[in-house]
Amino acid sequence: MTPPMTSITPHDLSRDKTSDHFALRICAVDLKNEPLAAGALIKIKKCLAGAKIPVEVADIKVQPLRDGAKSTLQDIFVVAKLLPKAPKMLQLMVDGPPGAHRPLFDLEEIGGIPSKGAYPPRSKVAKLPFNGATFTPVAFVRSALCVTETLRRMVLRGPGTCRTRC
């Protein structure tokens, strides 16, 4: 379940809606319990720029660790712009609907998912729904009937093939 995001300001959201910026959630970031000072935010900015996701320090919001949590992995919420030379999976994620794709991408120094071999650590990224506005999932739909698909089947079968009153 995605926790509600409350730390992106309306100023950040207005920039998200007016240009080619996107509200993103970057999961599994290992900040190694560093205090959230200017140095840590600049390090995050530098690592994201290396992944072709330029962001301003003011647009980085870090979700604090829960009390008593054993994991040091945190989530980062950013309003960012994707560079044209970004990996293809990141471009697909940004072009698609929110939450449809959660690709892994290389995130030097602060990625929380280790890679095998001599590859850099990774993290997951997802496009936030509602341009990053606060939300809380209330229900999940297991299956749904698409009315247009039902109508298409009735048309293909021809008149009089409907078992109910049409």
Task: Describe the 3D structure.
The protein is of the alpha+beta class and 166 residues long. It has one domain. Helices cover 25% and strands 19% of the residues. The protein is built from four helices and five strands; from the N terminus they run αβαββαββα. Strands 2-3-1-5-4 form a five-stranded antiparallel β-sheet. It is globular. The two termini are 41 Å apart.
Annotation, overall tally of beta strands: 5
Poorly predicted sequence stretches spanning 5 or more consecutive residues: 1-6
Give the CA-CA distance, first to last residue.
Answer: 41 Å
| Order of strands in the sheet with most strands | 2-3-1-5-4
Main β sheet profile: 5 strands, antiparallel
List the helices and strands in order: HEHEEHEEH
Shape annotation? globular
Mean pLDDT: 76
Share of helix among residues? 10-25%
Percent of residues in β-strands: 15-25%
Question: What are the salient characteristics of this protein?
Answer:
166 residues; alpha+beta; 5-stranded antiparallel β-sheet; 4 helices; 25% helix; disordered N terminus
Summary?
The chain is an alpha+beta fold. 25% of the residues lie in helices and 19% in strands. The chain has four helices and five strands; from the N terminus they run αβαββαββα.
